[in-house]
Amino acid sequence: MRLADFILRDMETILGQWEAFAATLLPAAVDMKSLALRDHAQQILQAVAMDLSMTQTREAQIEKSLGCAPVLMGVSATAAQLHALLRARGGFDIKQLVAEYRALRASVLRLWMDECQPDPPHTDDVIRFNEAIDRALTESIGYFSSQVDQARNLFLGMLGHDMRSPLQTILMTAQHLTALNAGDQVSVAASRLIRSGARMQALLSDMLDFNRTRLGLRIGISPTDVDLAKLFIDELDQLRAAHPDRRVDLDRYRRLQRRLGRPPFATAARKPGVECNQIRSAGHNSKSSNDRQRANHPFRGQESGTGH
Length: 308
Known about the structure:
2 domains; 3 strands
């Protein structure tokens, strides 16, 4: 008996084994009924049987092995893709998804070979069946991964938006403390809190912009000049506050300033805290080739500092 005929004839037996195995994929399958456990298994098997029933040239087989199989017109998603979508929404992980196909492959071939006895099975049917299962598995993995990525990006986007409100409250409280003039220590601590909060806001905006790219949207960029000295000083202030028992000095910035002969600036691609490695001198729109070479290798040399 040819494999395609066997699959269509013994569909219920195969589906029963699929269902029994899917029920072991815990915890996702713990409350699933028979219909949910079988999902699109019958449609996947019907597609496999249809593929096996069609004649196939050597060239077509090579094209399929390279992932260039013909696509059905007018079909928005295959049974394998829909199966992956529902499994992702049902809480299955990708290992469990792959395990379903592994079990399906083994059960179909085992049942069919037992049916073929004492005659040997058709080798070409085995090859084409494996090709069809591999294609369905590839479709499922691709769809499953895209669904998981989209859900993760939506979650991160919502988390970033929800974090803005408490962060804004922290910044407003710090600004209120600054306005109270409750002493130098309180003012310094409040100013540090404001700077740290502003940096956290920038990081949240960066995360949201990254998620926009993952969701197919664009990032608006406006290049602007940034004073590296101020950025370095703010960073040092945060490091000193986090490590009061350590001495933290800035040495390499002064070394860079000596090499350029004037204060360096960075051209930043709009988002505070995201700087490009483009150094230019204050008050000049152009650089000499020596300036560029020194800027590209600002830390080259034998000098050593006491801090980083």
